[in-house]
Amino acid sequence: MCICKYGFVGNGRTQCIDKNECQFGTTVVCGNHTSCHNTLGGFYCICLEGYRATNNNKAFIPNDGTFCTEINCGHPPEVQHAVLVGNHSSRLGGMAHYVCQEGFESPGGKITSVCTEKGIWRTSTLSCTEIIIEINDVSVFNNTCVRWQINPGRINSKIVYVIYIKGQRLDSMETVHEETVNLTTDNRTPKVCLDLYQGTNYTMHISIASPRRSVPAIIGFQTAGDDLLEDDRIFNISVLNEACLKLNRHSKKVGSERMYQFKVLGQRWYLNNFYHATSFNFTTREQTAVVCLDLYPATEYTVNVTLLGSPEQHSVQITMTTAPAVKQTISNISIFNETCLRWRSMKTADIEEMYLFHIWGQRWYQKEFAQEMVFNITASSQAPETCLDLRPGTNYSVSIQALSSELPVVISLTTQITEPPLPEVDFFTVHGGPLPRLRLRKAKEKNGPISSYQVLVLPLALQSTFVCDSEEATSFFSNASGADGYVTAELLAKDVPDDAVEISIGDRLYYGKYYNAPLKIGNDYCIILRITSEWNKVRRSSCAVWAQVKDSSLTLQQMVGVGLGSLAVVMVLAFLSFSAV
User: Fold this and answer.
1) Nearest 10 degrees: CA dihedral of 136, 139, 144, 145?
2) Which alpha helices (H) appear in 6-109, and where do they start and end?
3) Fold of 132-223
4) Which CATH fold topology does 428-550 show?
5) Which of 153, 187, 414, 574 has the CA that lies 20 to 30 A from 495?
6) Which residue intervals define the domain Sushi in the entry (predicted)?
7) What's domain 330-415's superfamily in CATH?
8) HSE-up of residue 180 (Cα within 13 Å, Cβ side)
9) pLDDT tens, position by position, 174-215
10) What angle do CA 69, 72, 73 make, to 5 degrees?
């Protein structure tokens, strides 16, 4: 009689044919929310769309307790500066929609999250960024009133403007009027009239009160005196595109030609010896003219404009600050002498520049090690160089940024290891007596990772010519061990406890691959402890003499061994004598 294997049934004659387990119904065989698939000699189940197996496999057999559950991603994730809107489903394919809060926008489009087959939400790569309000087209009217416009954006509430004014007399540099005024309005073309002094030179800064951010506007103008309200020599200046000035004349004489003298002085707060001074004359018949200046980045400028050709020369002074350069100004960085850097600066020749360094150092073999340095240097060369105070055996990330540029350069730098600390041992001189136990203390990984500790036995005559980094020392069983010395013990750094470990010289044990052989009696030896550090294909060692042995004898352990051996011989002889009787 023949029995068919599992998954097969007899055909009533002499053959076994495949059994279709799925014929009993998917729900019966596989459970709810499944589809059954027959195979030769077996079957498997797959969860329907919107469900997943409890064992997280696509196909399963229900005899292991696996069943299908509905995919539910739970509550959608939060998006910073956004709110969840509308109804959403947490099932497979469900989509959650977000809308940025007021004062924020998503430039890349709508923000959504989708429920995936893994039961987690796939978050959007888009985010809500703060709307930076730009203040444009600032102009003066009616002598003491100012109007401006703001860029369109999704801002519906009222905005608080901070208006800072500073006034100086035309005939003196002394400040006579300084005031800060707040204006709250939802108008996109605000205007305000101020109580200003007549015949005064004003600089006005307009910005948005925190926490909102804005691109501030600066305008300089001159208020008229009682006898100058109709004078065509009155003018004001506003800043356009950071380096351009817009000059507005109040002249009622169409086509009258006027000459203006510009005096420009630039300084950088972080450089004591940096000055950028220039002056020129500008002639125009236009009532509104634009003058663009050739200015350096990241520099604070004072611009004084004087109307020439009149008995009483009227002047307007304005301050402006240029932004750091957008393009990179550092290139061709190279490393020399391991810790020194040299680079190419694309600044103007003979102009001082300050460079900010931010350095991070880490060691993979010393998790607690962390070094961070922040400092700056000043150089006028177009090929500056500097050397860094770095630790050996360390991976560094070095960020260099010229303060006139907003883009830093980051490079990686690795310093090689140096010699490990000298072994801490207590020196012994032994004359014909037994050797004490060697107490091996764990060394600190100051200059690189410690790899191993070795104990070397040398003829005393070779102590003065021994080279610590030499790799010629061999094991006790080599042919040259008697004349050149040998390694009697080696311990890997990971096998040395944090406090110390003790070794008996000549205990006939193996330490690593080296046999700790007994010293030959009557010989003179030098015993050296060597600490080795290896990293990045570099090997460094440091050595210390632990003991000088003259006319060597047995160690304490060997003496005990010899005594026990003698006792055993005596007992055997006594036993033989007793047997003979």
Assistant:
1) -60
2) 26-30
3) Immunoglobulin-like (2.60.40)
4) Immunoglobulin-like (2.60.40)
5) 414
6) 71-130
7) Immunoglobulins (2.60.40.10)
8) 6
9) 777 888 989 888 888 888 888 888 778 888 888 888 777 777
10) 145
